């Protein structure tokens, strides 16, 4: 594995994370009624609960 391939993988992950956070910021800037209509709060809450379950599983 070369240094350039490692840097490429890191850059790809960074770009994906930036795009995901940008999308979340845009969705969170929408009015609450519109977010509820598209189901965003439930999706956001479900993802957070999965993270919490994964984190607690690692601690045990």
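-> sequence recovered:
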């Amino acid at each position: 594995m070369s240094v350039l391939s490692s840097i490429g993988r890191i850059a790809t992950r960074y770009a994906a994370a930036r795009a995901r956070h940008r999308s979340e910021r845009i969705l969170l800037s929408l009015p609450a009624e519109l977010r509820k209509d598209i189901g965003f709060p439930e999706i956001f809450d479900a993802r957070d609960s999965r993270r919490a379950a994964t984190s607690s599983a690692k601690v045990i």
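The chain has one domain: 3-59.
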